[in-house]
Amino acid sequence: MHLTDEAFRQSLLQDWKDHTKRPREIIDRLGEKLSAPMSDAALRELSALACHVYGEHLGHWQAGTEYLERLLALHRDASSDAKFRVERQQAVLIKAADCSRRLNDLRSSDRYYVTALAMPAATLQKSVEEGRLLYFEALELLDELDSPESRRLFSVVTANLVCDLLDRDALSAGEQQFLLILAEKSHNLWTREGDESDRRRAVFRLIQSYQACLRPENYATGRYPRYAWIKP
After folding, report:
1. For 112, 140, 191, 221, which has the most beta carbons within 10 A of its beta carbon?
2. pLDDT digits (tens, 9 = 90+) for 101-140
């Protein structure tokens, strides 16, 4: 694949648009892009997409880590910053695969980034229990950093995970409890960090979450058969 940098990044943008419904197809596209010439910016974007699809959508931790390893090997001339960004995406997959993994070799801001992004991947592809562990670990790091950038990241990550859980046909008691924790935290963050549109969407997600957790089993449409309850 030989594209200009702009065309390459536009191709990546299309991959982002398509990845939710066709993650396995995107994996094939990622393979085609692996050795293509690219700028540092494109390298960072490709590694972020690979981490997201391999991790959050498929739970293929080892395959994702190996893909990023090959990406680094094929782009040794990239800047040290770009290489570090790829390595940080690897760390997200490694942390999601093993929630007890310590990240002591990273700065606190990078530990936060890795943990925050590993949290939805572990929740969706492993268990809500592991997702909760990472949530509270990331929250502790967030409190230490207390910066607008870090709060914004957690606002986005929690909002997206709320949407992912709401998309499920049924939620266990543990998933319902975690959904409310996420929705309330996301709402609080967007109230502080977002604009009017962000705040309205956060309120709506919170209402949806309460509804999802209060919905009785076998509720269906909620209607009663009139013929059985109302005498003519």
Report:
1. 112
2. 999 899 999 999 999 999 999 999 999 999 999 999 999 9
Cα–Cα dist 60/126, whole Å: 11
Residue 188 C-alpha from the chain's centroid: 19
Confidence of residue 6 (pLDDT cuts 50, 70, 90): confident
Q: Are 63 and 54 in contact (CB under 8 A)?
A: yes
CA distances from 229 to 216, 217, 220 (A): 20, 20, 17
Q: Angle at the Cα of 14 (from 10 to 17), degrees rounded to 5?
A: 140
Residue type, 26: I
SS3 content of the chain, % helix, strand, coil (to 5): 75, 0, 25
What are the residue boundaries of the structural domains of the chain, listed by start? 1-97, 129-215
